[in-house]
Amino acid sequence: MAKPKKDIDWVAIEAAYRAGVEPVTAIAAKHGISHTAINKRAKAKGWVRNPGSAKRAIVEAHFSGAAQPVSGDKVSPQVSGLTIETIQGAANEDIIDMERGLRIHRHCLINLEVSAEKSSDPKEIKIIVEAASLAITAIRKIRGLDAPNSADMKDIDAAIEAELENMERGRQAGAPADAQSA
Question: Which H or E run includes 83?
Fold first, then answer.
C-alpha cells in the first residue's frame, strides 16, 4: 500500500528560500522534506535566493566598470533565464536612475562653481560649499567610492561594542540607557 502524500507548504518554503536568511537544510528540516527537493523545485520554478543582492551586484559591477554577469551561473546557480532577465531589467532601471542622479549632481557642481566665483558674501559661500559637499558625497555614494572596507567595519564594530558596554554599565548602575548618552 502506498504512503499517503503529506501536505507540503510550498508557499512558505518558497518565501523562506527567497528570503535567503536560513540555510536550505534548515528550511527542509522545518517542513519535513529534503533539501534536494527544495533545490530541485527552486531550480524548476526559478526561485532566487535574495534577489536584491543579485541586482545590487549587477549595478555595482556597472558603476565599477567590471563586466556584468550574463549567465545564471554568475548570479546564482538556481536562477532561471526568466528570473535573470527580471533581475537584469530591474538593475538596468536602477542604473538609469543612478546615472540621472550623477548627471544632476554634476550639473549642480558646475553651477555651484560659477556661483562661488561670483559670490563674496560669506553666508552665500558657506551655503555653496555645503551644497557642493553634499553633491560630491552623493556622487561618491552612487559611484561606490566610499564603500566600507574591512578596517572601517572593525571601527564600526568597535564603536558598537563600546556603546553596548556603556549601556550595560548604565543598566547596572540603575540609570536609563538614554540618560547615559545625554
Answer: helix 81-118
